[in-house]
Structure of Integral membrane protein:
Amino acid sequence: MPRPRPALPLAGLLPALCLCLAGLPAALAAAEPVPQIAGLLRDTRLDEVSGMASSQRTPGRLWLHNDSGTRAELFAVDASGRVQARLTLPGIKPVDWEDLASFTLDGKAYLLIADTGDNGGVRRRSELIVLEEPAFDAGKQELSLQAQPAWRIAFRYADEPHDVEAVGVDAQAGRVLLLTKRTSPPQIWSLPLKPADTREQVAELAGTLAVPNENTPSVDFHRRLQPGRPTGMAIAADGHSALVLTYASAWLFQRNDGESWPQALARLPRVFPIGLVGQAEAVSIAGDGRSGLITGERWPAPLIRIEW
C-alpha cells in the first residue's frame, strides 16, 4: 500500500513543471507545439501509474492503473486528475500490469489491461485482460465499482520471453500490438483481439518499430533509462494515429488508408519532447484523435497534453 504523503498544492508544483517544459530547446519549441500541463494526479494511490486510456464512453474521462505489485484495480479520473471512481476486479492477481488500452468492438466499449511486464525475461506466459468499460455518472463523491473480465488472452511469444510495456489495440483489424522494450530496434508482435477459444495464443512477429535519432536535453537527462525504449502506446479510436511513449519523448505515427499498423510503425515518427516527466510510462489519445496525454510513475504526476 502506498505510504501516506502530505497533500501537495497544485499551485506549488505547477511553476516547477512549467520550468521543465520551458527548458525544451527553442528550435524544438518553434517546430512543434509546446506540451501543456492539463492536470495533476495528486491522489496518493496513484503513485506508480504505468497505464492510461481515454474513455470510449465519456469524453475527458481517463482510466489509470499502477505498476506491478499492486491490487487489481483501475481508477477513473477527470481531465484535471481528480479521481471519480475506483474499479476493482475480484479474483484477478496482477503479475506486472504495464499498459492499458480502450477500444470499441461491436458497439461496446472495452478496456484492455496488459499484464505483460517481464524485467527478468523469465515469464513463460503473459496475459491480456479485457473488460467492458463501466458506465457511471460522476458526482462529488468517489464511486466504488466492480467488474469481471469479458475475456482473457493468455499468450506466449513465438521465440522467447519479452518485456513489453507498450500495447495498443487495432480494433478495425481485430489485433493487439505489443512493442518490446529491450530489443533493438523494438519489435512489433501481434495477437488476435478476440480469439475463437481460450487456448494459449502464440504472438506473431509483425515487424520492427522505426526509432528516431533524438538529441534533446530531456534525452540526456534520461540517458540512464535508455530513452529509445517504448514504455507506453495508444492507438486513436479512428485508427489513423498512434502515440508511442519513451522516457524522453512521444512519437506520433500516422497511418495511411489501406496500410497496416506494422507498416505505419516502420516509418520514422514525428517527435514530441515531453520535458522532465518522471519515468513517463502512460499515454492516451483523446477521442478526437488530435491530442494526447502523458503521465509517469513519480508521485504527484502531471498530466501533460500534446497536440498535433
About this structure: The chain has one domain: 23-307. The mean pLDDT is 89.
